[in-house]
Amino acid sequence: MVTGTELFLGMLNNLVVLILLVAVYGVFINQLEQIDKFARQIVMGAMFGIFAIICMYVKIPVYEGVIVDQRNAIVVLSGAFGGPISAFVSAVFAGFYRLYLGGAGAMGGVVGVSLAAIAGTVMYLLPFTHKNLVTTAIASILATAFLMPGFLFIGDFTAGFNLMIAIGPQFGTAVSIGIFMGSVLLNRENRRYRIEKERAKAEIARQEALEDAVRANRAKSEFMATMSHELRTPLNAILGFSDLLLMQGNEDLPAEKRRDYLQIINASGQHLLSLINDILDIATIEAGKRQIEKTEVNLLTVLRAGLDNFERDVAEKSLTVKTTYPEEGLIIHADERALAQITLNLLSNAVKFTEPGGTIALNATRTNGHVLIEIVDNGIGIPAERLGTVMEPFSRPSEEAHLAAPGTGLGLSIVKSLVELHEGEIRLDSREGAGTTVTVQLPASGGRAEAA
Asked: What's the sign of the alpha-carbon dihedral 61, 63, 68, 72?
């Protein structure tokens, strides 16, 4: 009979192989997660198959003259943690190598690893088997029982059956302990990986939150810098020229002079109103309280009205404006006020950031159930490093607010929000010193654009 010491040493040697397998699995688990499921199962099957072959040289004596190994336990674990393909690949590795070794028990060895692959696949498909130690132990015992018919293929049926009865308890104990220990260790490795992955995700989320906070703080700083400049300028003009009008001794100012002062005060007030409207608009949109009322709108009427608003600015800067759109009109189901605001904000930027003598193009077309509005200028453009943030609130083309053109930096942000409320898209292409192209795509009435 085999002594307890011999059995213990054999089990210990096999446990060392299992621990080595777990260590290799732990090293490569991150790389395995990076590839697709099919490739991952093949790689895992090959890895477990190699360890199954190694087990054939680490024997466990279970009866006088009878030895077993943990190849079946390794194949079961391959299926339980890798899936059906992994189980099949590891079984092929172990089975073919057992045939290569030959001997009376070769066919029984092949049947054994085949049954092990099936048992491992069942454990994979029933994930509750890894829920706790009790279910893992039960699954290990049941998987081992499923392997027992492999003995029937060693020699003739009677000899195989007698061998199974003789060494079944010892064999079953060794293999079930191997499956159980391997499952516990691999589960532990999987939990460690998941914890590290969650920790990495949390760190990324923390970093993103920090970056968002930095951006928000920068936006606040830019907003304060912009507001201090934009609000003071018209207020100073209003207060300064109104003081001149109210100052004693100025009652006899010529009517023309008074009219000029009043025009400056009026223009400054209009500018202040525009700033406040922009701030209120973005606040309303971000609070989710901006409602749009869609009606049938002739888009070309809105575009032409928008151009009329900048007729004076265009003339003062000697800009050339080119338009391309169907003369018959473009009917779109949209909020007319929002469309006007989108047009005015985009045209305002084009006029503001185009040098005197430059060119602005306004194009409108219909395509695939949408209408496209395109505004192209050959102005100063936007630096590459600011393209990603230029549509954020209070973002400006220039780093220094006092050097930038007048405005709150809310125009594009408002446009983006209004376009999204219409379930549309906005694209911005720009190169510093070469101009900017803004394309707005909006769904048309009934899913298609129709001629007026």
From this structure: negative
Where do we find the tokens 């392997």? 147
Top pLDDT among 450 and 126 is at 126
- Sign of the alpha-carbon dihedral angle for 157, 158, 159, 163: positive
Q: How far apart are CA 231 and CA 234, in angstroms?
A: 6
Does the structure show a pLDDT above 80 at 222?
no
Strand pairing report for 320-324 and 359-367: parallel
Q: Where are the domains of the chain?
A: 4-206, 225-286, 295-447
Q: Which CATH number fits domain 225-286: 1.10.1740.10, 3.10.560.10, 3.40.50.300, 1.10.287.130?
A: 1.10.287.130
pTM of the model: 0.51
pLDDT exceeds cutoff 70 at 7: no
295-447 carries CATH number 3.40.50.300:
no
Give pLDDT tens digits for 262-319. Answer: 888 888 887 777 777 777 776 676 666 666 778 888 888 888 888 888 888 888 889 8
The amino acid occupying position 237 is: A
Fold of the 4-206 domain: Arp2/3 complex 21 kDa subunit ARPC3 (1.10.1760)
Mean pLDDT value across the chain: 80
Contact assessment for residue 342 and residue 292, using Cβ atoms and an 8 Å cutoff: no
pLDDT in tens, 382-437: 887 777 767 766 565 555 434 444 555 677 878 888 888 888 888 888 888 888 89
Q: Kindly list the distances between the CA atom of residue 370 and the CA atoms of 11, 32, 346, 448, in Å, as whole numbers in the listed order.
A: 72, 44, 19, 6
